[in-house]
Write a structure and sequence with these properties.
Number of strands: 0
Helix content: 55-70%
Strand content: under 5%
Shape: elongated
Radius of gyration: 20 Å
Structural class: mainly alpha
Order of helices and strands: HHHHH
Number of helices: 5
């Protein structure tokens, strides 16, 4: 009965490896100097926070800065690669 309510889509016989263009671009962008510097700041913060037993510090700001730079870099080329 569920087959009647929910359509089933079957892939073609040719198995095509799908690659996420966003992930590819993130990998490339993460190697750029700006992203590397922000990742290092995030790691320093993370190490500092993990070394303490009682702290209210979080590394949220550092992580947001890193993701922002990564997304800005990715967005320049992402939509050109989408099919």
């Amino acid at each position: 009965m569920a087959e009647k309510l929910i359509p089933v889509v079957k892939a073609d016989d040719e198995e095509e490896e799908l690659v996420d263009p966003q992930q590819q671009l993130r990998d490339v962008c993460s190697q750029k100097p700006d992203a590397q510097n922000l990742w290092a700041k995030y790691q320093e913060c993370n190490d500092r926070v993990n070394s303490r037993s009682k702290t209210t510090e979080t590394c949220e700001e550092e992580l947001i800065d890193y993701i922002h730079v990564l997304d800005k870099c990715v967005n320049k080329d992402l939509f050109k690669r989408l099919k």
